[in-house]
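Same chain as my last thread, 293 residues:
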Amino acid sequence: MIILTKKHFALIGSNINYSLSPFVHEKLFRLSNVNADYSIIDLKELTLENYKELLVALDGYNVTIPYKVNVMPFLDRLDPKAKFLGSVNTVKNSNAISYGYNTDVDAFLLTMKNHNVKLNGDVLILGYGGLARALASKLLFMNCNVILAVRKKSLEKEKAKNAISSLENSLFKTSKTLKIFELESLESLINTNLSLLINATPVGTFPNVNDLPVSENIIAKCDTVFDAVYNPFETYLLKTAKKLNKKAIDSVEMLVLQAVLSHKVWTEKSFCEDDIEKLVTETKDEINRKFKI
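reply #2:
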């Protein structure tokens, strides 16, 4: 009789009890017949050193705010793509070695492809965290002009300065431009049409569902709006974009796709398109149930 050892995975972050990651990953484990569980580990300290024993005991884990950049020095090896993007959201522990990967960006690119969004022209990204930094790096590499909008008080923080410096150092690989604007002054600085607006901030997250990260005037200048907030999945930002006849894309598909890509890292399992589409629908239903939307 063969006894399969149960594997243990988790999501690490801060103030993440709202996360739908356990729901998504447990569905994927069942689909792939992998004996595993997935939990939330809500960390209370910025440094990861105190959690080293806890994290290395896992078979793998996902990383969310505010650790996508901070986790990198903690890992033994980085996938070249994650190193270039400057952000890790997936870690695999194998033979006492930790490997860091980024599945966020590929999931984002697949989502844009599935919605027939061409990534070119001027792209406005709100925020400066791990997701914003990774998407900015990739879009610059793809020859988009990137505008990073950050709150004035955040621009004074060391984390924001380091993120911006890292992006500026990568510009030698592209002929395109990176501009850093204060979020509060954005309306007076944006004078042209934008191909894409990406909200990589938590603004609009439940329960503050009536908050807008930018004004309607800015949204009106954008062809497509993507919101990384998924609780609710139809945010006030996306509702406003639809009202202005803009293409509006929620992030549930990206949430599921980055989980699918994480499973490929952890277990080498793949999933068919029908199962992925069904899981996207089930995840939206779970969001509505969980947040009583």
